[in-house]
Each structure stands twice: as structure tokens, then as C-alpha cells.
Amino acid sequence: MNPNYTTIITPLAPGLVEACRKYLRDTAEPRPAGDFLQCQPLFRFDRIASLHFCSFVVLEADNEFSPSLVFEATFDGPAEDFLGELLDVASEGMHEVYRHCTDYPSSGLAAPQLIKEYLMRHDVGANTLFCGSPGRSVAQVKGESLVRNNIVSFLSSKWSSGEAIPARSVGFLEAVRRHVIRGQDDNCWAEQQAPTPWEVRQRSWIVSSAIVAAFVVVCGTGIIVGSPFGLGPFVLHDHIVRASEQVTQLGASVGSFLTSWFPWVSNYITIEPAILHILIALSCIWLVVRIIELFLTSWTKNPHDQLFINRFPLQLAVIFRYTLIIFLVGSVVLAVTPGMIAARSAESVGTQSGFLASFVAAASITWRLLLLGVVLLVLNYWATSLKLAVELRPYDAVRENVRRLLLDLDRFAMVIAVAVGALLIARHIPLGFSQQIATIVRSIVFAVFVIVAYGLIGILAFYAIGLVIFGVIRVLEMRDKRRFSDSSELIGHTQENAKKYTREEGGINRYQNHLASITSVKPGFVRRWLLRLALFVINLLSRFWFNRGELGGIPTILSARWVVIDGGRRLLFLDNFGGAWESYLNEFIDLAAVKGLNAIWSNTFVSADGKRYGFPASKFLFWKGAQAEQPFKAYVRQSQVETIVWYGAYPTLSVININANTALRQSLFKPLSYGEIDAIFRNL
Hints:
Blueprint: E1 4-11, H1 17-28, E2 31-33, E3 36-38, E4 51-59, E5 68-75, H2 79-98, H3 112-121, E6 128-131, H4 138-158, H5 169-181, H6 198-201, H7 203-226, H8 233-252, H9 255-261, H10 264-268, H11 276-297, H12 308-350, H13 355-392, H14 397-426, H15 431-483, H16 502-506, E7 512-521, H17 525-544, E8 557-565, E9 570-578, H18 581-590, H19 593-601, E10 604-608, E11 611-614, E12 618-619, E13 623-624, H20 629-639, E14 640-641, E15 643-648, H21 655-667, H22 674-683
Antiparallel strand pairs: 1-5, 2-3, 4-5, 4-15, 6-8, 7-9, 7-10, 7-14, 8-9, 10-11, 12-13
Helix pairs in contact: 1-2, 2-3, 4-5, 4-21, 7-15, 8-15, 11-12, 12-15, 13-14, 17-19
């Protein structure tokens, strides 16, 4: 079961904003008590067993928007049940808080159900939600942490008195199972396997299904695009068959030349010499495309400098390279079957039967296969050497590209060697069986060629559409430079915004922190559409791909939500994260998540001193942007809203701790190797 959430936004009476803020700070804010948070008498959040996190934030009034109060919570179970528990343990406190709101029910505490309905009516949910530990309830998180602590304490004290230490780690594991888990009533529940959300269990199948669905859409698009140009499925199939026959005829003109100079080709390998023309041509094209790809990869030495001008053709080069590989393999298969039948027919007519002839044939193919095996071993040794070379000594860009190209050629040669071995074996397949295989294989290969061709057409169509969209985005970005001030000018406002992040910078929360941010959405239909599309995609990725403790490589986010409010004119971001504010933002800058960050916040701006400041300038939506470290941090500080009240049910645990504790519990009663058992105790 994934945690549920609520984001309740209510309008504040303009004259009561400061009174509401003061009441929350004095009466609702939990106080640090060692490694825990001590709740205030009127707000006993700790008595709500299902509550993970909650916070109160006040959004200030400006020229366009009136002040409002934000209450957000992450919890287990239905929202209605959580609000009922909240009003049970904090009815008086919640009543006093919401009395500062303009449309709060006048009946107040006399009608608690009306208060619940009022809160539910103002729940705006979230456009995007990320949870660092999906499927863990509050009880499970706390219980697994306690189990880990008990194991550590047991191992620390068990043999400190001089008892005999087990010779193997399996002895430690058996002692833990017997004394810590089964021997303590409070820990017996840990022997049961923890429930896992279906999105996590079926992650690989979901991704595979998504890839298949995307490929079907791409091929369908290729058919739609190709049909108006007379490239229907059957027509395209006929074109590919005729092209294959024409190229084969062209290759026949050089067949006699190749046979005279390389007679062993027809003697030892059952490929018609004319077909070598096709294979050599495709191999040369593949080599050229690969060289172009490596050149584009090493365009710049700065890993942050991901230029659109080379990323776009680089992706096309990768697509063309894999397409060429498919056509190359298919051409080899098409070349093999007629040669195999012809060679086998000649053998069936001209070869004498008998034990001696069979023995000679078997010996002939055996030594050739052994020779191919030696070749494969040499090629594999060379590939391993190329892989280890860069580990021992880093190469410069040119040598690295040469290394990668040689590694590709080595793998290509290994594929050829395997193919030759298959051809040698295929030569001894019975004739009738070979003819049947040839007919089936040719049909399959041409069908694959048609599918791949439509896939390539569809991909090119999508890239053409993407090129237009990115062109529009770039025009908007250039226009934004004239409409919005540079975010680097916000660096001077850092000290003025100190009170907004006193909690994080002052260390009030030692292990976990909370961040609230409010930004305005740039005007225009395209900007609003881009923002909602980015949030939709990230929400899907958060649920089905980034569901193992990290979001785009960031392992410190406990839970985060993005909410588009005020009719799509503002974006509210609420985040519970581990560690310090500064290091948390650095992770966005350094890791792959910067692209998602840019895709969201490049559509927003903040205001200060009567001026509007845009997000650090991005290029084509995904690149640059937040990689400008100081302007980015200044922008975040300007958009940040003071967190007045924050509560966490397990404030000493990080996402890594929570997920590691679950992994420890899951592994305690599974069949494990000695190495896996050792890893458990090393991780402790």
C-alpha cells in the first residue's frame, strides 16, 4: 500500500495572517527532544499512527493573490479516516488555526463533521507525488528500524563477555533468528515477508510493456506517414524484396572476381560470393555511422555541457546504427539460405555415401569449429583487455573513442565468427529440412525488415515533430530573456530571505528537513501545457520506474509533491528530504534529475522588488538551467516559503536507512549464500 496524501489550501483573512502564523509557531510547532520531536499538547501528531509527515505553510498575499494557509500531510489509509483521527487528537488546535480563514464554518467545534467536510472540500491533492519508500507504513518503518537496532545491540553484547564466537557468519545469522526475532515477542512479526506494492514487483514487466506499446505506436505512426506516399505494408514489402534481389544481382557481377581470388569462400562457407557485396556495404555504412556517433559523443569535454546541436543527431546516429545491425543480420540470413541449399544439393548428388565419407565430413567440420572457437577466445581476450585498459589508466577523448570503436569491431568480429560456425553446422542439415527453413526464414526476415522500416519512419516522424516543438520552446526561451530579469540578480537577496530557511540552516531538524516553494507559471498556453506535461511524465516515472528509493539518481527525498494551484497560475512544491539544504540542491545540479528540474521550473518565475525573475536560462527545456549553481540556489531561496510547522514520525531516518532496514528484514529468513550472509553483517 502506497502512502496517501492531502494538500489543503484555505484562504486566510488578510488581517489575521500574522496572528495565524504566531499561533502556529507558538502552539503547533513540535519541539526537538534529542533525536525525536515532542508534539505540543493541542497538536499531538504523534498519536496519529498512520501519519508520516505533515506541515503548515502560509502563502503571503501579493498584487494578484490573497493570502492562504497550506496544510499538507502524508499518511497511510483513506484521507477521510486520517482527517477524522486528526480532528480527534487536535480538534481544539485545528479549530483555532482555521478560525483565521475566511470561509471556516461558524459552528466550529459544535459540528466536527462540518470541519472535516470543510477540509476535504479544500483538498487540492497533487499533480505529481514521489515517495522514497513506497509500500512502507509508519508502523513498518518504525518496527524495521527497531529490529535493526536490536540486532546491532545483540551482536555488540552477545560475545563481549568472552563467549565462543561462531566460526562462520551463518552462526551469527542463526543466533539472530533464534534470539532477536523468534525469541522476542515484539519482533516475531519480522519473520513475515514485508508486502511490496505491485508497481515495484512488476517493475520490469511494466517497463517492457511500455517499450512494446511505444514501439507499436511508432510503427503505427510509420504506417500512417508512409501510406500517403504509396508505402503501404504490402507495397513496402514488395519494394524490400525487389531491392534485395536487385542488390543480389549487382553483387553477382563481382561474384566471379571474388571466387577467383577467394575460392575458400565457396568451399568452406555456404554464402554465395555475390552476397558479400551487400554485407560489405552495410558493414561500411555501420562503421561510418559509429564513427560519427563517437565524434558527437566527445563533442565537448564538459559533462554538463549537453548541447542540443549534437544530442539530436547523436540520438539519430544511435537509431540508424541499430537499424543497420538489424538489416545486416537479416541480410546474412537471406544470404545463407540459398547458398546452404545449393551446397547441400551438390553434396547430395556428388558425395559418396558411407562411413568413411561421413567420418571425413565430421572431421572437416570439427577442426573448423575448433579453429573458430580459438578465434572467439582470442577476440574475447582482446575485448576484456580493451575494457580493463580504461580502468587502469584513463584515456583522453581521442584514445577513448578509438578504444570504444575497437571494442565494437571486436564484438562485430565475434558475431561474424559465431555466424560462420552456424553456417558450417547448417551445411549438414538434411536438404528437405533446409528448404523448409529457407522459405520460413525468408518470410520472417522480410517481415522484420518491413516492421523495422516502419519503425524508422515513425521515429523520424516523431523526431521531426520534436524538432518543431523544441524550436518553439527555443523561441519562447529567447523571448523570456527580454520579459524576465536574470536570476543571477537574485543572489543579492540571499540574506533578505534568511528567515525562510532558518529551520534548515539552523539545524532544527538534524536528519530531515522540509522545503516549501511557490512560483508563478509563465503566461501562455504553451508554457502551461509544458508544465503539466512535465509533471504528468514525472508522476508516471515516480510511480513505475523511480520506485526504489531514488528520483533521477537523488536518494535523499522522503516524499515530494508538485501542485498546480490558482487555476494553473502558480506551482506549489512541498518536499521532505534528508540532509542539509545545500547538499540537497547540489544533488539536483550534479545528477540526471537536473533535466526534470529544468523541465518543470523553467516554466516558472518569481517576483522581487516589483520585478519578475525567470528560472536560470535553459536551452531547449532540458539543458543548462539549474546547472548555473549560484543563480539556481538564489532562485530557490527567493521562491522558498517559511515552514512554520513540521512533523515527521521518524525524524532520524533517511530514505537509505528505511530501505536498508526493509532489505535486512526481507533477507533474514531467505535462503542465502555465504557471501550474501557476510554482506548482511557488513551493511550493519
